[in-house]
Amino acid sequence: MSTTTAYDDLCRRHERQHRLAHLQSIASWDQSANMPAKGNEARSLALAEMGGLLHQLATDGALKELLARAEGEALDEVQRANLREMQRAWRASNALPQALVEAKSLANSRCEHAWRSQRPANDWAGYVENLREVVRLHREEAKFLADSSGLGLYDALMDQYEPGMRAAEVDRVFGDLRSWLPGLIRDVQAKQAQETTLQPVGPFSKAAQRALGHDAMQLMGFDFEAGRLDESAHPFCGGVPEDVRMTTRYREDSFMQSLMGTIHETGHGRYEQNLRRDWLGQPIANARSMGLHESQSLSFEMQLGSHPAFASLLRPLLVKHLGDQPAFEEGNLHRLLTRVHPGYIRVDADEVTYPAHVILRYEIERPLIEGLIEVDDIPALWDAKMMELLGLDTRGNYKDGCMQDVHWGGGLFGYFPCYTLGAMYAAQWFAAMRREMPDLDARIARGELSAVFDWLNAKIWSQGSRYETPELVQRASGETLNPAHFKAHLQSRYL
Amino acid sequence: MSTTTAYDDLCRRHERQHRLAHLQSIASWDQSANMPAKGNEARSLALAEMGGLLHQLATDGALKELLARAEGEALDEVQRANLREMQRAWRASNALPQALVEAKSLANSRCEHAWRSQRPANDWAGYVENLREVVRLHREEAKFLADSSGLGLYDALMDQYEPGMRAAEVDRVFGDLRSWLPGLIRDVQAKQAQETTLQPVGPFSKAAQRALGHDAMQLMGFDFEAGRLDESAHPFCGGVPEDVRMTTRYREDSFMQSLMGTIHETGHGRYEQNLRRDWLGQPIANARSMGLHESQSLSFEMQLGSHPAFASLLRPLLVKHLGDQPAFEEGNLHRLLTRVHPGYIRVDADEVTYPAHVILRYEIERPLIEGLIEVDDIPALWDAKMMELLGLDTRGNYKDGCMQDVHWGGGLFGYFPCYTLGAMYAAQWFAAMRREMPDLDARIARGELSAVFDWLNAKIWSQGSRYETPELVQRASGETLNPAHFKAHLQSRYL
Ligand SMILES: [Zn+2]
Ligand SMILES: [Zn+2]
Hints:
Chains A, B: It comes from Paucibacter sediminis. The structure is a homodimer of 495-residue chains. With 495 residues, chain A is mainly alpha-helical. Chain A is built from 20 helices and three strands. In chain A, a hairpin with a 2-residue loop joins β2 (237-240) and β3. In chain A, α1 runs antiparallel to α2 and α11 (290-304) packs across α16 (417-436). The longest helix of chain A has 28 residues, at 6-33. The mean pLDDT of chain A is 96. One zinc ion (ZN) is lined by residues 264, 268, 294, 297 of chain A. The site of one zinc ion has 4 residues of chain A, from α10 and α11.
């Protein structure tokens, strides 16, 4: 006698999960930003309890039939899209046997934990023992996901972060990139070798940097009534769409990394803050993908940050909070913001060399998952590719080489391409904006950044997961992923 | 074929509730201390969802039989006590029909919300309309609780906050208090009229007060690896035992209220921080009662705060953070810490006049719940009792009279006695300490406050809810509640 549709039932279930996940997000943020040491065990147990509960709700036995019934119900276009995302979430939660989920989680934690001391000790031999088990389990995961989805092994993993993206497409765009990037890096370096750039002279107090960061977030349109900036050891953008919790960390000898990191996270934060309010609680409201998310942070940090006019927007904030100094002169500031320098560490890389790091990871992690290479092959491949792509010698230097970050140790296989796909999408957005708004650069120079933000809001933020990525990209920019825009952007900015 | 006892099953269920409630506590603290305005709706929905889930777990149909079966199992003394507390929790969660719980919650929220604007407008007529409904529902609640427990109406409500305490006992101890308190207040005022007391001269920056508060918490033994101090509009002590979240608020023109409030909350915080770690997650670990909790905060704020030696412990902290000034001279500081002044507002009251406010509330709320008076009778009773107990005229001044706080509007009937029971217990602890440690006052004067803290830890904090209150009090102090110690304390401190 119930008049409730299966679709309505599903919506209520997702809303419930959304509300409970809210508490998990805030408590996780608190764990990084506030929590004193002795709270850690109880917090971890509480979060694990909630993780188990959310998993239980996501794998509830009733869902399969509800999803099937909802398929046959009369739904409008938005509901249909929401149902598609519900099904995606259901598949993601139900594809793996519980024993594998637990084994993965254990192996990842063990590998990450040991890595913290193995990395400073340059202990590849120790690390590889744990990594081997992580890789074994993630190959198993890839097999399960591939079997249930019909995708290739690597595609099945990548699909978790970038739904719809396939290795064949990554090969196409990264193949193009690979053909011109090393040459471009050399050309830019040759050009910049002629320039003199003054380094800012510190120290820069935390309090001043905190105030500077707030003003920079204000410049980038962050809504402080729906979010905060705090400190944590590893900067991230967390919280919930209604209350975004960004973090940064300050070094008194240098402010640029924290400042540009804050601007980067503000891009992530505004995407979340502007997801459609009336959809929140449903999967359709969620940000489309990791690559799309990164396209927002990179629109802020790179597309705007390396814009020739951006230095003049930033300069008054620096002078206000840090006092004036010769390095803050606009031309010098722009040179600082666009400095290209091949280095070992991905997270410290500039806009031009960053994709080389990502190509390298992709070219290793894909055959690794596909079983074509083994973990013991990683260092030699790493050394060869670092030399080829960036001209750097990493032999024997594991800690600044294949042990520099813990993505693989933590099981994040298939994630790396998102960084560079994000950079490509960001370039594509700005190309589209310039077609629609021929005076865009003049507006940016006048500080009218809302031209950019309004476009991103209309085309990306407010669209959530309504469309599959290719359709979203097509609707936003008039074409699907086109790496030519990224190339044109780098050439025009850096040559 | 299960070898699990019903008792083990119950323990696991309570542990699960404890872990989920952890997230609720931290998210509630965050709502008061951190959350920006636009996060409120989503946070409230998330907390309500969790509240519903915890209620569902606490009223699970299987519990009744599990509790009955556990009764018959072989349990040691600690397990037996834990089972007693599980039963208490079960009765509390299951005594009321869900419809009444929801109606109460709605009426309380409505009354509290309206009170925020009605109080400044002195709008008794408006307030009384909402309060009437709140009282009606809480009389209904009292009836349900009394029917299921066999207690009197008021006792049934009070038992939620102070298990085992009965109105007959409150009558006995408050009756004694009432006979000598007004005379004592007059005598102290006459004595203090001879004294000259300098007021501290501000302003006192927030940053300096924050640092002062931290040092005061350190002096009082707060473990900063298991808790924090932050700011909120209404100071409280929240969080979880493993990670206590205290809050305060700062006024730049005055530091004393925030400082002594912080010392008060530190007493609550240390009780929580020192609940037995190996019991945490089970009801037996919990603080015994609201009165016992208040006996800790008042041991810190009043028993130590009004101690003649305390000014000399506080003075160096004031000088360090606020600079020196004549008001910080030790004798003057002690006079400031022990200033007695009858006033309208309970929360601003000193140690001597505070019980008068509580007696007044008790003498009104009890007959109100018992149906002997109606809400319309409150103002006249209030006026008469304020005149009788404190010599103050409150006629027509509702906002500083019966509308000054929102305990009744929020449905907290039966709670007020805990404040003064706490003050009495605190005096009783110090009397017992002095019997056991004849040099206690000398040790306090030397700043060896650990003598006090170790005693409280051994006798109260680490005992959790192992014993019913009378037994806990007897074991701690060698006798059950004896108001003579409170009288002796006030006389020796203030006359
Ligand atoms: Zn990012
Ligand atoms: Zn208190």
